[in-house]
Please model this.
Amino acid sequence: MAAVAGNRARRLALRTGHILVLVLFVLFTATPFAWMLITAFKRDSDLYNPDNNPFWFNEPPTLEHWAYVFQRTPYLQWLLNTAVVGLAVILITLALALPAAYSLSRLLGRWGERLGIAIFLVYLVPPTLLFIPMARVVSSLGLQNTLWSLIVVYPTITIPFSTWLLMGFFKSIPRDLEEAAMIDGCSRLGALRRVVLPLAVPGIVTVVIFSFTLSAQEFIYALTFVTSTAVKTVSVGVPQDMVRGDIFYWGPLMGSAFLASVPVAVLYYLVLDRFIAGFTTAGAFK
Model:
């Protein structure tokens, strides 16, 4: 009886510890969103009073910060620009990274692996070293101050990493399945479309999320190549138009940041399992 009671107490302590860790993690991750949301509804007199509780409303909430975001700034246009750039970058990345990764992992043997590592090293070059030559390229193409400048430049970041990531995922798919499909009459492209790509969905989802997140949050290129307010993305428009000198409009800043971050957080939540499988390359087979 004492042993049974000890095991129950041990299991209870372990479960309690798991719950406490989960609660702490939820608080850690949810606090920034809660703070942004509360700040977006706070009055300036409440917000700038150091004696007030920053995590609650010491005065009645207000909508004046939201009115500033939607009426005095082209915030919706920034969101649309971000979505257009993100979608275009995703399509370009998939169109180039998928065939490149498949070719390097299936057709070139060891040379393919070495080339994949070399391509990945390009991703490690920081944008602070590349934005000057990239500016020359954008200027030569006549794309200054347009969304096309970002659509052209961002794939130079997303394609190397996506190619390396998809190479690892394609290698985890047995060649036997592909060869069996080719024996049954499929061409190599047919086997790729009908067998390999469906099994590589977790990796493709990872590439989609990575490409969109990078294009939505990138700052240096967007700041360098785009100057008109109507052409900016959220990552540049919000800090540039809501910070005037040493004056920070914290209410509109927090409100706009909350609106821009929640859809991305929801997207991560919906595809979290596939996203993790894409990075671990453990989700191709069970």
About this structure: The chain has 15 helices and two strands.
